[in-house]
Amino acid sequence: MVDSSARSKFIEDELRQVKTKVSTLQDAELVSCVPQQVRIDVQRTKSKRMSICMQFPSEYPDQLIIVELKSRTLPQRFLDATLKAVDANKEQFLRARQQAVAVARFICEYLDSNPLCVCAEEISDLRKEANVDADKGEFLKIKQKQSLVHLRAQEGAYFVEAKMTMDAQYPETYASTSVETNMPAVFQRFLTAQAKEVARRCVQPPLLRRKKGEKPVPVANFEPRPSLLPVGKFILQTARRYPTELCAICRVVCFPPDPSALTEDMEGDDFVERVYCGHIFHHRCIDKYMKTPPFKGGKKCPQCADIIFHDKWRASDQIREERWAHEQAKQRELDEVEDFLS
Q1: What is the pLDDT of residue 326?
Q2: Cβ atoms 42, 27 nearer than 8 A
Q3: Which residues contact 221 (CB under 8 A, 6 or more apart)?
Q4: Which residues form the RING-type domain (predicted)?
Q5: For residue 252, is pLDDT > 60?
């Protein structure tokens, strides 16, 4: 049993120590330092901030100091994990006797050693969304020291690996993503570019053009949002969609079962074309479709009826019709010659 007068004197001595040593804690501010409560606010970035509230129990310092963590920005999951870490190391704090600064320093170090703490909820949601199948070679790895989330999704023999890196200012800045895949090169470029675009839209406001000729201005009242989960979902959906998707015209799977059978010849019959609406085609199928009437109103995707946009088929309806008429006339001439010779 701790003598009450001795306890009070010990606490008074410790409070003086706290006032002196709190300055050694990076980005920390002493808000309250009285026998009833010691409160230290820590702010590393706009999103990495918390209040460390500590109270002295009746048997202090023979008991671990009571700690409560509060934050409007950090997930409760991370705060709970931090408290568990404090409890797991209580012996070192009990040996230190004066525990307040030691516990606060430990919490600050734990915060710094877990840079992904700001996206703990996103990682949890992404893990549920991914539902990785290790037997297929899928995984979701968290690398705290590198502030990186490494995701691999597999569909048949095709895989997509994405490394999403968060900097110190995340989620005010967006996740940087690098992609590796054994899909055709055109799909790797699409995955990389679209992952960046998905992330950018999370933190940068869309531009609004009020009047013709005026310079676009950012939309007012835009609130940045975390980008890790949206990017992760995009990677998963794309990786699991295309290896089994049918050609929108011939209704045969575009991707061969063996990735080594893929052709990178952009004019090859079996080259896989992806159009603006997201649907895919064999090159031979869409090439014939785009060069065959009707042309009026633009050629539309047979799957979703959206107008097809693609760099390979940018000619106007009039030019397409003229080319088709020319091909037909040429074919008639060849047929007439063949009939004459036969």
Answers
A1: 60
A2: yes
A3: none
A4: 247-304
A5: yes
Whether residues 79 and 191 fall in one domain:
no
**279 neighbors 303 (Cβ within 8 angstroms):** yes
Predicted pLDDT of residue 208: 79
Of 57, 83, 113, which residue is a domain's last?
113
Distance of CA 244 to the CA centre of its chain: 24
CA 71 to chain centre: 23
| Within-domain flag for 99 | yes
Answer with the one of 113, 147, 180 that is the final residue of a domain: 113
Integer Cα distance of 143 and 149 in angstroms: 6
pLDDT band for position 1 (50/70/90)?
A: very low
When pLDDT is averaged across residues 27-36 and rounded to a whole number, the result is: 95
- Residue 186: Cβ-neighbour burial (10 angstroms; 0-12, 13-18, 19+): middle
263 within a domain of the structure (yes/no): no
Check if the beta carbon of residue 141 is closer than 8 Å to that of residue 165.
no
Task: Tell me which amino acid residue 199 is.
Answer: A
Which CATH number goes with the domain that contains 48?
A: 3.10.110.10
Which pTM was predicted?
A: 0.84
Model pLDDT for residues 212-231, shown as the tens digit of each residue: 777 778 888 888 899 999 99
Strands 37-43 and 49-55: antiparallel
**Of 88, 94, 144, nearest in space to 119 by CA:** 144
Let me know whether 77 and 99 are in one domain: yes
Is residue 327 in some structural domain? no
Residue 325: pLDDT above 60?
A: no
CA–CA distances in Å: residue 264 to residues 37, 155, 160, 271, 277: 68, 20, 18, 7, 22
| Residue that wins the pLDDT comparison between 334 and 51 | 51
Domain membership flag for residue 254: no
Contacts of 227 (CB under 8 A, 6+ apart): 171, 174, 175, 198, 199, 202, 203
